[in-house]
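User: Fold this one for me? It's EamA domain-containing protein.
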Amino acid sequence: MNAETRLGFFAGLGAYFIWGSLPLYIRLMDHISATELLAQRIVWSVPTALILIAVAAKWRDVRVAFQWQNVRWLAISGLLIGANWACYIWAVHVNRTVEASLGYYINPLVNVLFGMFIFSERLRKAQWVAVVLATIGVGIMTMAYGHVPWVALFLCVTFAIYSLIRKQVAVDSRAGFLVEIALLAPLALTWLGWFSSQPGNTLMGDGGWDVVLLMAAGPITSVPLILFALSARRLKLSTLGMMQYIGPTLQFLIATLVFREAFSWTHGVAFGFIWLALIIFTSDSVMGEAKARRLARAARIA
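Assistant: Here's what I get for EamA domain-containing protein.
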């Protein structure tokens, strides 16, 4: 493993570890409403993003990101990621972290379906098998909850559409993130102003450590995105594909072992189908990438 690959590997681990540990931070702040925590997360992400862009000297990319043809799409992606954050924070607050982790497990399979319906991509047999198994898992989870697991579906669909838009907008990841949160910040500040004007409400929690922890929401949001961008440029897609399950696995373990959320045998069967689908899907992706490399190598030799 050379130095660049090693940097990418540890950057990826850092990103997924932070994302996977996020429920611990949200639960630590559960005395603050989900809406205020969301607004604070948006507001404190702005100075964090500005600092990261200044360090990387990416101001030219910021100007490109603020061009109208990019802003109009980044406004949509910003609303999507804001809605995703809101749903996730609320889910952890109301003890539905297991269901939230399910959403990020099935997200890669939703991406495959988007590729089929939007870009007319043809699914391989193994991918069809994975999608069917995941669908069965979601159906069993519906029986376990007594209702459709809408939190999981909302999280995976909003993030899949967000990823789709960001893939199509050719801007630096840091600059694009700055535009998204800069567009969301006025909404967040307006809400915080209204909230603080209501009798009995105070901003920044109980003061003291609450102030520090709320300010930390900016780095907690921005840093893993930057680490992910570093890893994506240095690692193979197959490696990233396998690493992406670190986040939801940590969330799942925290939900069941730390938060002690309900997890019956029915949940176990549902997750079993989904994990089997992911094993098949990931194995097929790894073999597909290996085959593509062999064909490319053979073409160069020829």
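One thing worth pointing out: The chain has one domain: 3-120+150-264.
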